[in-house]
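Data availability (excerpt). All sequences and predicted token strings are deposited with the supplementary files. A representative entry, Luciferase-like monooxygenase, is shown inline so that the format can be inspected without opening the archive.
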Amino acid sequence: MSELSGMPFSLLELSPMKENETVSQTLANSVAYAQTADELGFNRFWMAEHHNMRGIVCAATSVLIGHVAGKTQRIRVGAGGVMLPNHPPLVVAEQFGTLESLYPGRIDLGLGRAPGSDPITSRALRRDEQRAEHFADEVTELQSLLGPYKGDSPVRAIPGENTNVPIWLLGSSLYSAQLAAKKGLPYAFAGHFAPRFVHDAIALYRREFQPSDVLDKPYVMLGLPVVAADTDEQAQFLATTSKQRILALMRGQALWLKEPIASMDGLWSPQEKMQVESFLGLAVVGSQASVKHKLSMIKKELQVDEFIFTNDLYELSDRQHALTILANIMS
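Structure token line:
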């Protein structure tokens, strides 16, 4: 039996945009991508929150979640994540309570502590630069707002109250791992962009986990960049799209989705190449056999319960074909 048998596969979507595309076209592509995932039996489709980034159009996360949930049938749809310091907990509770009421049993709420933007944009969003310091308290407040009313607060989330939307903590460092363990919440590690602390964070979470009303044992989801194609060579070619994007991110340039190219040579310096490859250190690139082997090794090494993939390919058809390959592995 495969190491991956019965393991849920999920997707993290940033709604990547081509420079010559409209926002409407990009979002329509995200919906078509989600519908393919729904049909193929993927577990979750999460939308990220990013602001003021040309080439990424997933700023209004809760609006997109509602749109995607309305266009799909079965797949869980959620936030990967809502950057909580950008939003009052009451507003988040009302939004996700409404989503859960519209699409019962299909909504997830992943929470992050990072800004999802540059410092100037972060100030424009938050007004209060100290909000991130109160993340743990605001998670507790949000749990209370989404749980049953206990008669002890004059402020209630209506809708939201008693919807018990599943809350996840997301992170790329030890802080969120420790907090998720303390609160007995499921934990998602952002290996798709920050692989450095993956071993330490997952080990810490499992070691310090305290059972809660929502979870009796640790549950780890790992974010991974994936490029799956018919051959290893084709996958390596398609992977140059995400490499160009990370290079643009590091240079402070627009993050347009760019066509794959034969070689990255001449585009980057040796130092930039090293930085991009470090950023994508957990990337799984290859044919079905190669991807299956690499995922099996990662699962065995890290003992994760679920994978959530970013799949940054230039053509929608290539993204959908990658999902077919992953579905074959999953089944």
